[in-house]
Specification:
Elements lengths: L14 E9 L2 E6 L4 E5 L11 E5 L2 E4 L5 E5 L5 E6 L3 E6 L7 H11 L3 E6 L7 H12 L5 E3 L9 H7 L4 E5 L6 H8 L25 E4 L5 E4 L13 H7 L25 H7 L5 H27 L1
Parallel strand pairs: 8-9, 8-11, 9-10, 11-13
Antiparallel strand pairs: 1-2, 1-4, 2-3, 4-5, 6-7, 12-13
Bound molecules: guanosine-5'-triphosphate and magnesium ion.
Guanosine-5'-triphosphate binds next to α4.
Length: 308
């Protein structure tokens, strides 16, 4: 599918299309023949980038979604990142906060998306040691692409991966280089990127609206505004354990108790791996943190249910 720059006049077209971007009271829709136009929507319509829609004149109806990726922020607000994705690109750079990758992987897997990690800014001297550790932790569990968007180095393996017809989104904290990466992958777009390239400037919000782009070699990617916390939404404790990166052995060997939370239960595969030195204690600690968050969320959902 080729995304063209032609924008048709309002009210001229009907048919099914794909939401490319969302601007408060209007969405930009791409129709099957490559034409794009803005269609008005209610401010809190709930439509997001990646939604398939049926448009009749000015009436827009959302079609059923195959996937939905949600996250919560530090204040408990729930955000829908995008719809109908099949992969999620988690972008990191030196100084990215820890914890983002694991939560994003769990959320992606629970939503039926295959996560991958993009380790950007490989040109910075701080990157080497950091990314060696990152590869050690995640290689073999999720694809990891170390690259430099600024220098255009290391992009081919990522292009090859996306070419298989994937539709994904880049998520990551502010300033990790999501938009820079999109600009490098799609030569005819010019997304706004932060002016200061200093790796310390991770706190600015440069991108404010999510936008979907087709890659010249195949595949589609959504550039999203950066955010600091990938809070989990409606993820059960069982899902945390099932999707935690490093717990893949659980797929083959179950624990003694089917509802094992991998704390002190006897016959637990995970604590066995930690004791044998096959799972780093640090990784296990991270699991316990995420598990505690999921338990707290489950309990507060229960309390809300009781109050009804
Ligand atoms: N050294 C270096 N700098 C980079 C690289 N990629 C991006 N940058 C710089 O990092 C800064 C932030 O890049 P953006 O692409 O705006 O980051 P973003 O993730 O889209 O940020 P938000 O839109 O705020 O979420 C810019 O000044 C880029 O020039 C890279 O590979 N190496
Ligand atoms: Mg950006």
């Amino acid at each position: 599918m080729q995304i063209t720059d032609k924008v048709a006049g309002e009210g001229e077209r009907s048919g099914t299309g794909l939401i490319l971007s969302h601007f408060g009271v209007a969405v930009e829709v791409l129709f099957g023949d490559g034409e794009r136009r803005m269609v008005r929507v209610k401010r809190n319509s709930g439509h997001v980038v990646g939604d398939r829609v049926q448009v009749d004149e000015e009436v827009l109806e959302r079609l059923p979604r195959t996937t939905e990726l949600r996250r919560s922020d530090a204040r408990g607000g729930v955000h829908l990142v995008a719809a109908n994705l099949d992969v999620l690109g988690i972008v990191v750079a030196p100084l990215s906060p820890s914890g983002f990758i694991d939560r994003a992987i769990i959320a992606a897997r629970a939503a039926g998306l295959n996560p991958f990690v993009v380790a950007n800014k490989c040109d910075l001297p701080q990157a080497r040691e950091l990314y060696e550790a990152l590869l050690e932790t995640y290689q073999g569990m999720v694809p990891v692409f170390p690259l430099s968007a600024a220098r255009g180095e290391g992009l081919d393996p990522l292009r090859e991966f996306l070419r298989q017809g994937h539709r994904g989104a880049f998520v990551g904290t502010n300033g990790v280089g999501k938009s820079s990466l999109l600009n490098a992958l799609v030569p005819d777009i010019d997304l706004k990127v932060a002016e200061v390239s200093d790796y310390k400037y991770l706190g600015r919000h440069t991108t404010t609206v999510s936008t979907l782009h087709a890659l010249p070699g195949g595949g589609e990617l959504v550039d999203t505004p950066g955010f600091r916390d990938f809070g989990l939404v409606d993820i059960s404790c069982a899902e945390v354990a099932a999707h935690f990166p490093g717990f893949e052995a659980l797929e083959q060997h179950g624990c003694r108790f089917h509802n094992c939370r991998h704390r002190q239960e006897p016959g637990c595969v995970v604590t066995g791996l930690v004791a044998a030195g096959e799972l780093p204690a640090e990784r296990y600690q991270t699991y316990l943190e995420v598990l505690a968050e999921a338990e707290a969320a489950e309990e507060s959902a229960l309390r809300r249910g009781w109050k009804k």
